[in-house]
């Protein structure tokens, strides 16, 4: 099982980026996929999750209305479209999956997303003011 995140970069406030997470070794539409981020000196936080059951999506309040998670089953890839970026979005972003046990984004109420057992390497997002 491998997850390869990409798409990070440096943008100005108000800009957009699209992160990609290419999965291998499993079929991602059968499992939950989530994005997390960690800023320097801060704890890791859940950003968004897409459930395996019906494709339901969940977002942290801080990104709701600005970020969109989606998946392309044919490409076995999950995306995070990030619009209206703010300096406080600066962080290393990680994708993760609950393979081999679907948790259906449980813990979404606290942006926790339980059961994420496999993680990709992070991709840096820097938003300047």
Order of helices and strands: EEEEEEEEEEE
| Average pLDDT, all residues | 96
User: Could you name the ranges where pLDDT drops below 50 across 5 or more consecutive residues?
Assistant: none
Oligomer: single chain
**Number of helical regions:** 0
Form type:
globular
The beta-strand count equals 11
The end-to-end span amounts to: 38 Å
* Class from secondary-structure proportions: mainly beta
Evaluate the radius of gyration. Answer: 13 Å
Could you give the topology of this structure?
Elements: E1 2-6, E2 9-12, E3 17-24, E4 33-38, E5 45-50, E6 57-59, E7 67-72, E8 77-82, E9 91-97, E10 118-119, E11 123-128
Parallel strand pairs: 2-11
Antiparallel strand pairs: 1-3, 3-8, 4-5, 4-9, 5-6, 7-8, 9-10, 9-11
Task: Offer a quick outline of the entry.
With 129 residues, the protein is an all-beta fold. It contains no helices and eleven strands. It has strands at 2-6, 9-12, 17-24, 33-38, 45-50, 57-59, 67-72, 77-82, 91-97, 118-119, 123-128.
Structure report:
- With 129 residues, this protein is mostly beta strands.
- The chain is built from no helices and eleven strands.
- Strand 4 (33-38) and strand 5 form a beta hairpin.
- It is globular, with a radius of gyration of 13 Å.
- The relative contact order is 0.32.
């Amino acid at each position: 099982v491998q997850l390869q995140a990409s798409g990070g970069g440096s943008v100005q406030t108000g800009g957009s980026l699209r992160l990609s997470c290419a999965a291998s070794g499993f079929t991602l539409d059968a499992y939950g996929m989530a994005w997390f981020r960690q800023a320097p000196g801060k704890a890791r936080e859940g950003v968004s999750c897409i459930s395996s059951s019906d494709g339901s999506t969940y977002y942290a309040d801080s990104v709701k209305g600005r970020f969109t998670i989606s998946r392309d089953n044919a490409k076995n890839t999950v995306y995070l479209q990030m619009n209206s970026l703010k300096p406080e979005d600066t962080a290393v972003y990680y994708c993760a999956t609950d393979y081999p046990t679907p948790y259906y984004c449980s813990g979404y109420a606290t942006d926790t997303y339980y059961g994420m057992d496999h993680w990709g390497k992070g991709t840096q997002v820097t938003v300047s003011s």
